[in-house]
Amino acid sequence: GENVEQHPSTLSVQEGDSAVIKCTYSDSASNYFPWYKQELGKRPQLIIDIRSNVGEKKDQRIAVTLNKTAKHFSLHITETQPEDSAVYFCAARGSNTGKLIFGQGTTLQVKP
Amino acid sequence: NAGVMQNPRHLVRRRGQEARLRCSPMKGHSHVYWYRQLPEEGLKFMVYLQKENIIDESGMPKERFSAEFPKEGPSILRIQQVVRGDSAAYFCASSPSSARYGDTQYFGPGTRLTVL
Predict the structure, then answer these.
(1) What is the pLDDT at residue A1?
(2) Are A34 and B105 in contact (CB < 8 Å)?
(3) Which of A14, A17, A28, B107 could cysteine-pair with A43, CB 3.0–4.6 Å?
């Protein structure tokens, strides 16, 4: 069935360092991959997304890479700041369905 | 431009009661999705609706749960005879009608259901 695996489950970095979160997906028909940031008690907020016809996308300190052959995609955050501390979720959407399949989440802690 | 609205934000029910969760999509959005998030877990897809149609309910339990998105008014997720295991945050998301932007889902603030 459809599945998204996300690693690591927790990540602690020093302020200014980079953070990388990796996801793999099982459905080769998936064509859309968003990343959401969720602060405690808040809604998931879209921070960046990538479609299957693109290998990389960047928005200021955030970038996402996609390897369709290996069926994995990664989130890169550079120059991390304490306000980046949150839970990050990756997701994959199949080509024939509207639903998003989410990874298990990564709790990122940025230490000042 | 108001975002996705959900109410109530918090709902407390006793076992056996009914819970009704409401979701108003963003203006111009006609696609609604419901997800459930158990404490300290990820989001699990429940159901995908368009106006007056259920498109995909593969993630919704077969019993006690139902959803609708009428021609007028908000989408409703209904849970009958709630049990303690139903305690969770229920998030609604909406996406635009346009095929070009149809992928992006924007989430509401969620309804936190507690079953006593």
Answers:
(1) 64
(2) yes
(3) B107
